[in-house]
Amino acid sequence: MNLSDEDRHIIVGMELEKAENIFAEYEVLQKAGFWSTLVNRLYYSVFHAVSALLINDGHEVGTHKGAVIRFQQYYVKTEIFSVDDGRFYSQLQTLRESADYNCSFEVAEEDVLSRIESVRLFIEKIKKYIAMKNTTN
Questions:
Q1: CATH no. for 5-136
Q2: Residue 119 CB: number of other CB atoms within 10 A?
């Protein structure tokens, strides 16, 4: 990705802000009991955080599946992030796709509620990595 350092910094900031804003929607959706929509928003908050990570390090984001593959390739296989982190991201994407595209798939409340804190921690982990990486460069 050919971006100036300034442009890259701006886009990474915008992606992280979008991740945070989308994640903040969980409270309203949880109160309303909109579990499928909540899964969607949790996934997209993670997707934007991972997009920020990839862009920060000069990688293409590409498709949703491509972002999962790149996350595995550049961050899990190199042990920057754990295998559990990679599995979590991949499973969240699969759950979101099932909820969004399979009309007979019902998202259970407990499947969503058990992931909220994990999403928050995952986004924080990405933010810390980006901050650390940018202070050492």
A1: 1.20.120.330
A2: 23
Q: pLDDT tens digits for 104-121?
A: 999 999 999 999 999 999
* pLDDT recorded at residue 137: 64
Helix (H) or strand (E) holding 28: helix 26-32
d(CA 82, CA 75): 8
- Return d(Cα 2, Cα 90) in angstroms, integer: 27
1 close to 59: Cβ distance less than 8 angstroms: yes
Per-residue HEC secondary structure of the chain comes to CCCCHHHHHHHHHHHHHHHHHHHHCHHHHHHHCCHHHHHHHHHHHHHHHHHHHHHHCCCCCCCHHHHHHHHHHHHHCCCCCCHHHHHHHHHHHHHHHHHHHCCCCCCCHHHHHHHHHHHHHHHHHHHHHHHHHHHHC
Answering whether pTM is above 0.85, one says yes
Q: What are phi and psi of 49, to 5 degrees?
A: -65, -45
The CA-atom distances, in angstroms, between 72 and each of 35, 69, 88, 90 are 27, 5, 11, 9
